[in-house]
Amino acid sequence: MTVRDMQDEINRLKKEKDICILAHAYQSHDIWEVADFVGDSFALSQKAATAPQKNVLMCGVRFMAETVKILSPEKTVILSDSSAGCPMAEQMDKELILQLKEMYPDYAVVAYINTTSELKTVCDVCVTSSSAVKIVKKLDSKNILFIPDCNLGDFVAKQIPEKNFKFVQGGCPTHLRMTLRDVEKARAAHPEALLLVHPECSPKVTEAADYAGSTTGIMDYAKESDAKEFIIGTENSIVQHLRYECPDKRFYPLSKDCVCHNMALTTLPTVLGCVRGDAGEIIELDEQVRLGAKRCIDEMLRLGD
Ligand code: 13P
Ligand code: SF4
Known about the structure:
The chain is of the alpha/beta class.
């Protein structure tokens, strides 16, 4: 089957079976083309709450599919590949957070959305890379325990110096592959290019950038900028998407090693398998866990809008 044949069949089946396909920005371009909506984690959460279809296929990683199920329990939610997890989401467990809450009772627990549903049940609010600064600023609490991504936490803390932050060791293994050495090499190779990075990168890389923001933020910045060359410091799929969207501009990866192998598990044939009903995993959540996690996500959508 050609790519076009597969896409035609996916489009036919998703209509016939009333399936909404949501794709994270790190999915490949052939998947973007069959998706009903493509976006960053925050925009996907907003869509999850409003999509009219009875069934949702999430092309991304587990916590994203869980977010859809948390917000729309009446829908059948399918994760494109059952082994597509986010390693950062597994870095902390509920017991650790409960201990930290006892140690720091006057701290609000702010959880990056890249966490398990179970962990969210003991947090106060979720944030994403595009909404974190806005949401943390709006919180009544002056004291913030930010989990699990220390790099995003550092990025947020620097923009809100009036609040006190505590972090626990954690971060994205994909974005941590990029170093200041990569920045020096890329700047030397492309002296005219602007450096755009995701705040999951280390503080040294983020501080050296011309812009830091979410996947959508990076893409919007590159599209709207008058500059013609960009070094991209996030998952390398974004380099490919930008080359499609802005063929008159040049895009270089900050590091060729910045590949999220979990996101890459989903391919166009996987999507076809999911809409046919013979691939993917139907997400089920314990109702108590769902309701506990929903509190955190509802708060994010309320404060982040
Ligand atoms: P955003 O899409 O919110 O920028 O997040 C990036 C990411 O790593 C998702 O896991
Ligand atoms: Fe998780 Fe990092 Fe992959 Fe995003 S890029 S899904 S944070 S491992």
